[in-house]
Amino acid sequence: xxxxxxxxxxxxxxEVLEEMMPFFAEQHGNxxxxxxxxxxxxxxxxxxxxxxxxxxxxxxxxxxxTASGTESNNTIIHGVxxxxxxxxxxxxxxxxxxxxxxxxxxxxxxFASIExxxxxxxxxxxxxxxxxxxxxxxxISVMMANNETGVIQNMPEIVQWAKKNKAIVxxxxxxxxxxxxVDFEVxxxxxxxxxxxxxxxxxxxxxxxxxxxxDVVPFIKGGGQERGLRxxxxxxxxxxxxxxxxxxxAANTVLFDKTIRPLQSYLEQHLVQMGAVxxxxxxxxxxxxxxxxxxxxDGVTLLTAxxxxxxxxxxxxxxSSNSNEPSHVLxxxxxDKELAQGAIRVSxxxxxxxxxVKSFITSLKMEIERLKQLAAMAA
Length: 379
Fold this sequence. Notes:
This protein is α/β, with parallel strands linked by helices. It folds into two domains: 2-8 and 250-378, Alpha-Beta Complex (Aspartate Aminotransferase, domain 1); 14-248, Type I PLP-dependent aspartate aminotransferase-like (Major domain) (Aspartate Aminotransferase, domain 2). The chain has helices at 14-20, 22-25, 36-55, 69-83, 97-107, 126-130, 155-164, 184-187, 236-273, 299-308, 328-332, 337-340, 354-378; strands at residues 2-3, 63-66, 88-92, 112-116, 139-141, 168-172, 191-195, 206-210, 277-278, 289-293, 311-312, 344-347. The strands form three sheets. Strands 2-8-7-6-5-3-4 form a seven-stranded mixed beta sheet, with helices on both faces. A three-stranded antiparallel beta sheet has the order 9-10-12. Strand 6 (168-172), helix 8 (184-187) and strand 7 form a beta-alpha-beta unit. Helix 1 packs antiparallel against helix 9 (236-273) and helix 9 (236-273) crosses helix 13. The two termini are 33 Å apart.
């Protein structure tokens, strides 16, 4: 089986697992305990915090460990809502549901919100914000790189607008970590989300990187761990693995650019020759992500056929894969609903090879021809 669904989750790297194992088998102290086991656990977490901070050029005090990217996004959105009761929430039309759904929940509490449209390439329309005469967002969340199309947003332009309008700005950088440079200081955002399992670390651990000047009210309340912003006993082994994964992130970024990007180009050349439409191809994208469709071919049917051939691909966001509805990202980009229904995502990993891509292209050609023949017979 060839795995082409790395945007959904990645395999734990052997070095990451090796780093974690002692904390499963030997070191089991609670980090808040004052005995030797507790102190060792606390020290290990702080060392991991430093590694995560270094990976995104932040200060360790700005790193808040959580259980997932979803929790991190909920923490900043609900935390800002409680800290700034008059907030108006802006978010792009292509955000992951773990951003759009919390904002939707806040609307039921009386908060105002604005969905920011994107253009045909999936890039945020800043002019839309600038043209709003009143009720401009005081908080804005725009993902750094889209999980479906791989399109990378023009964050400097977005941050410039936010700073000019005194808005708190957050970016979900879950898909960016380890594929492109993520620099909290250079981005100049107020909060940033990253996740371990998207970058060859374990599932069940993530981080919210937050400017200490922002008044974020705790989303999960309890014993006061993580500077009081995320109570609950820390996932010790997971955090250690996350730290090691972040330690490897810079090298992975180089690998994606030098080795995987050419494979993306090779694949997409063949996709175009086969008649595919590649979404967001006129914008800067992640070096591993290709989101495409063939007119009049159903994406789920093609995905199932490829799975039987030994290729794991996706029809869009992993969190929405049980839905029969077309990708909300593509619909926001103005893509025809029928074409969007055929969308397939290939997301390569650091170990993807040219031979695997060639094998995929061969199988894809065969399945497309077979499905076209079946469609013709049924017509």
